[in-house]
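May I ask for whichever protein you like with its backbone structure tokens?
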Amino acid sequence: MLHDMSDKLWTNSTQDDFYLKTGMTFLQDGDCQNALEFLSIATDINPQFGEAYGYMGVAFYTLGMWTEAMDSYQKALSLDSSLEKVYFFRGVLHSKLAHYEEAVNDFSIAIEWDNLFDDAYCYRGACRAFLNDHKGAISDLRLAAHLGNRIAQKMLNLRGILW
């Protein structure tokens, strides 16, 4: 993939965690290529490391590599279905691809895991609007607004809807 494993320095059980954390640091700094390199090493060391695949999905998404992002999200969730943020990120990708029903489903799962997840309510509300579920959209946007989501607040304010 993006790296050469011949120069591995560690062989203990914290190796995959080191590569995950390093990859996450690169991702937070906006360096998606290096993030992918380190995250890929983490998954080579531990092919069952769902969290690393989830972050790979975020890096691929940021790079505009939609197919790779979706594949990474699918792999992450097949390994660990409790990764609520991965459902959220996959929902964001579905919404970008205009797969609004799939997006609503993913945001709903993320909300089941964390019922105070304001961004998930906001995105789900927007997707529901695209699906002409205006009552559901307003309900989600109001809840997101009450939870402090400024985007939802602005969306409702622009439409003159009290929240």
Observations:
- The chain has two domains: 11-81, 103-163.
- Confidence is low (pLDDT under 50) at residues 1-12.
- The CA atoms of residues 10 and 78 lie 27 Å apart.
